[in-house]
Amino acid sequence: MAERSQNLQDLFLNTVRKKKISLTIFLINGVKLTGVITSFDNFCVLLRRDGHSQLVYKHAISTIMPGQPLELEIEEGPDRSQNLQDLFLSTVRKKNIALTIFLINGVKLTGVVTAFDNFCELLRRDDHAQLVYKHAISTIMPGQPMQMFENEEGAAREAS
């Protein structure tokens, strides 16, 4: 997952743009925007609704929810285990562990992480996928106990 020609965010945004999928963008402040993404770059997306376009800065976005199920061709790559965040996300993804994710605005999301990169996580619940920007996340809680290290107690002592 680490080194790909296209990151998760670009793959997701290109797919919804090319298929002209109606979606809802949830901003960090709780505002909901709906429309179709017509363009995007590293910093913003252009959202069109009823013939009008608006520029939305990515730093203000918490999640993007397509209005219909979305199939993404996600390439599996080598594990990203350089840091605790990547190790945690790799573990819950591989073990298909259901998560509760709390955003900084208090919103609670549930689902399974199917992919992630440095900036986003793809959260799937039932047939629907939601792109979640990491800058909007405060806490991630697994729905079951999990072991990330071979010797969990030893790893905890080493970290202290």
Automatic annotation (TrEMBL):
Signal peptide from the UniProt entry: none
Single GO cellular component term: cytosol
Name of the molecule in the record: RNA-binding protein Hfq
GO biological process, one term: regulation of translation, ncRNA-mediated
Family annotation (Gene3D superfamilies): 2.30.30.100
Family of the protein in this entry: Belongs to the Hfq family.
Residue intervals of the Sm domain: 10-70, 86-146
The keyword Membrane is annotated on this UniProt entry: yes
Organism this protein belongs to: Agrobacterium genomosp. 2 str. CFBP 5494
Biological role stated in the UniProt entry: RNA chaperone that binds small regulatory RNA (sRNAs) and mRNAs to facilitate mRNA translational regulation in response to envelope stress, environmental stress and changes in metabolite concentrations. Also binds with high specificity to tRNAs.
Assembly and binders: Homohexamer.
Transmembrane region(s): 21-40
UniProt keyword list: Membrane, RNA-binding, Stress response, Transmembrane, Transmembrane helix
The keyword Ribonucleoprotein is annotated on this UniProt entry: no
Taxonomic superkingdom: Bacteria
Record PROSITE patterns: SM
An MF annotation (GO) of this entry: RNA binding
